[in-house]
Amino acid sequence: MIEAKIKLVMEHEITVSDDNIGSKIFVIRHQKVMLDKDLAALYQVDTKQLKRQVRRNIERFPEDFMFELTQGEYEILRSQFGTLKRGEHSKYLPMAFTEQGVAMLSSVLSSPTAIKVNIQIIRVFAKIRALYVDTLDLKLEIEAIKKKLSHQSQNIELVFNYLEELMDKKDDKTPRKTIGFKTKDD
């Protein structure tokens, strides 16, 4: 009976859109992170339970995997969300999980839902990283083109200056001394 329930839960498809996950990724302290409340909602657990499991296994979450927001960071984040309803948010400062911290959460929260959602979250982080690399490559190529163009405009200007000088000399009509081998007539 228990095996049948587990199989039913495992076969139940968890559908969370990549856009939904992507909208819950923030940049805090120059790192892409997800907040505890958003992860708890995706994993379908209480935020309190998620935090409890993390605190019980705190040695798995070094500073580069998870950190608590400062009061100032939390206030800035709250101001981005607009007016918050009273009692809707925790009185404790949120935890922010980096991509590695989210991966580590799968070892702490072992429900089938948490495992499936965790895999999807890691894939979204990977897509964001790939987009960032593609964007960086594109920016570098644009800068290289700009450098070439700035040098070419200087070179073109120089060519036009020389052409102008030649045209001025042509218009001068003063006889020029011929150069080369002298013949008997010279």
Could you walk me through the main structural features you see in this protein, from its secondary elements to its overall organization?
The protein is an alpha+beta fold. The chain has helices at 2-11, 18-22, 36-43, 47-56, 71-80, 99-108, 112-171, and strands at residues 25-28, 31-35, 66-68, 95-97. The protein has one domain. The protein has seven helices and four strands, in the order ααββααβαβαα. Strands 1-2-4-3 form a four-stranded antiparallel sheet. Helix 3 packs across helix 4 (47-56) and helix 6 packs antiparallel against helix 7 (112-171). The chain is rod-shaped and about 110 Å long.
Q: Let me know the average pLDDT.
A: 77
What order do the strands of the largest sheet run in, or round the barrel if closed? 1-2-4-3
Shape: rod-shaped
Structural class by sheet pairing and helices = alpha+beta
Low-confidence stretches: 1-14, 83-87
Q: How big is the Rg?
A: 33 Å
Give the helix proportion (percent range): 55-70%
Number of helices: 7
- Beta content comes to 5-15%
In short:
The chain is α+β, with helices and mostly antiparallel strands. The protein is 61% helix and 8% strand. The longest helix has 60 residues, at 112-171.
Chain-wise SSE layout:
Layout: H1 2-11, H2 18-22, E1 25-28, E2 31-35, H3 36-43, H4 47-56, E3 66-68, H5 71-80, E4 95-97, H6 99-108, H7 112-171
Antiparallel strand pairs: 1-2, 2-4, 3-4
Helix pairs in contact: 3-4, 6-7
Key terms:
single chain; about 190 residues; alpha+beta; four-stranded antiparallel β-sheet; 7 helices; 4 strands; ORF6N domain-containing protein; KilA-N_DNA-bd_domain
